[in-house]
Amino acid sequence: MGTRPSLRHHKERRGGPGKIIRMTPGSRRNFFAEPERDDETIMIGGGISRWTMAYFATALTWLLAALALMVAGIGHPATDLAAPDTLVLVHVVCIGWLSLAMCGALFQFVPVLVAKPLFSEGLVLPALGLLTAGLVALLAGFMALGGRLPSAPWLLPLGAVLLVAGFGLVVINLGVTAWLRPTGPARFVLVGLASLCATAAFGTVFAFALAGWAGPTGDAVLARAVPLHAIAGLGGWLTLTAMGVSYRLLSMFMLAPEVEDRQSRLTLAAGALAVVTTVGGGAVTIGFAMGQNVVLSVAAIFGLSCAALYGRDLAGIFRDRKRQLELNTRMAILSFASLAGAAVLGIALVSMGTLTSHSGAFVFLAVFGWLSGLVLAKLYKIIAFLTWLETYGPVMGRAPTPRVQDLVTESRATKWFAIYHLSVWTGTLALLAQEPNAFRVTAAAMTVGVVGIVHEIIRIRRLEDVAPPLRLPAGAAAPHLLFAKS
Ligand code: HEM
User: Fold this and answer.
1) Is residue 195 in contact with ligand 1, taking CB distance under 6 Å?
2) Phi, psi of 40 (to 5 degrees)
3) Based on CB atoms within 10 Å of each CB, which residue in 23, 117, 216, 291 is the most buried?
4) Whose alpha carbon is nearest atom 38 of ligand 1?
5) Tens digit of pLDDT for each residue in 347-390?
């Protein structure tokens, strides 16, 4: 990881507007892990990943594109779940929005989790370029499949190869970094990265099979492994990684003690078993042409246990916190509610035998209520924190500077998050009721919420809510919207 702006040479730091407090050697050494007072200034000193903002900006652009597709009625529920238009929508959300946002956050936070620099800062931007090019080619391939573009069977394999190259750089970079000290949350990231490899491997076989280049084995995998690909991606890669990072972010932002390793290891074991059962067991069922119900049921039990154990871990963090809940944490609670809601909905649909016909509603609640809700809430805080660190870190102790919370106006931002979550829940009901037009209205309302949140984030990045006397002290430079200046 880049080492900017490292504040090792500063002997003082601020304790709030207008106040300067003295740093102790201990507080500088372990600012991310040892909350000692009620102020984010304890976190100064960490380097800033140069391209994290570019990942976030690209991810939010893809999210707005996905919402535009939903408002326009392109993809499920207007079309079948397996229709090419749905595949476009699914990958805009899963790769463009969620995977890129997650990668951007991981490039910043994995080095913090393991207290080691990122293996290579130089691989971060090429990975973004490859992932973007690969996604565009994959989407064009799906559009050609659906007759929206002239037939071009090579587009899907091209997209797959570029995506594998991009995700490969991400996995090497983050994997080597996390492997050096695989403690607590870093283990979740490692299992998440392994799941990403499985997801990309299945996806690549599908892409070659759809082009007619994968032979009978590829066709058999395409016919039966789509649920395995989806579970490895949404459950293994995105959910386990989000859980791991959330442990550290929640305890950091609420000044709560870390969840004990022994405890989180059990949660991870349940999640990892769910993924291994799905991918390993699923592959065996395909190889031996057996039914998949038993394997998927066992995986579901492990998955539900993982969600329940995660709930227990979160309850501990909230119980032992030393700080009032900020907006990002209150909104994260709404996404935890959606995770619990998705678990209950899944159980209800399975017991009524209607999971297949309503899987769109289930996946929608998990993807937009749980994963996207959590990512949006954490982006709001992470961007404020990184912007604060980048702008005021270099002048810390030499001039009065604002607090992180002075960069945000929570009272104004709350309504956008509320609109977003209410629309997601109404959208889930519209999907369950099989009302595509009502769903489009809720997607439009979600768009209003997301545009509002993006607007707030841009204001944070431009320091627009910081009172003028503290905004740019002598020696501080305004941050760039899309990258951290070196
Ligand atoms: C190398 C990267 C990837 C490639 C090449 C790829 C490719 C594909 C292909 C070709 C299909 C369609 C299979 C069919 O015809 O039914 C598919 C389905 C799917 N993919 Fe991916 N994928 C990739 C990554 C991901 C990731 C990272 C996620 C989630 C995090 C994901 C989630 C899904 C889901 C949920 C479906 C099922 C969609 C539906 O049935 O409507 N994919 N993928």
Assistant:
1) no
2) -65, -10
3) 23
4) 87
5) 999 999 999 999 999 999 999 999 999 999 999 999 999 999 99
